[in-house]
Amino acid sequence: PTQPFFTELQNDHTYHFIREDKTWEEAQKYCRENYADLASVFDMADMERLRESKEYEGKAWIGLFNTWRWSDGSNFSFRHWDMESFNDGQNRKCAVTLLNRSGKWSSDECNNKNPFFCYDKLILINENKTWEEALDYCRLHHTDLVSITNPH
């Protein structure tokens, strides 16, 4: 049988700046309910798209936390730390991007309230196709069929 399917826009995220002050955990919950997750950043092109999607100068949550892993489970290989402001202290276990400077990242206390970035990386293709047709379509037009790598 044929059915609609989701395709993945890997490394081509659409970022959404949310100008509401929330703790990191509240921001994560909001992003998961309304988008995909808190923003993950994989390279400088992503970083530039993130910086261009706002009208704000200050700090904003991104999806890095705790032992510096992404909220959505993505690989953490790209790093953009501002070492002058970074403090890996006991209470500073969540990451912010510093939008009033170079856009580099710093750490903050997770219970502080900041605006934040969410991202979308899935789109629904509302066409009925078999699994093989859906796979071919996604690989030709986007990245691939969706792979679910964590329960969120």
UniProtKB/TrEMBL annotation:
Domain C-type lectin stretches: 10-119
UniProt-listed InterPro entries: C-type_lectin-like (IPR001304), C-type_lectin-like/link_sf (IPR016186), CTDL_fold (IPR016187)
Signal sequence coordinates: none
Superkingdom: Eukaryota
PANTHER family per the UniProt record, alphabetical: C-TYPE LECTIN DOMAIN FAMILY 20 MEMBER A-RELATED
Name assigned to this protein: C-type lectin domain-containing protein
Species the sequence originates in: Maylandia zebra
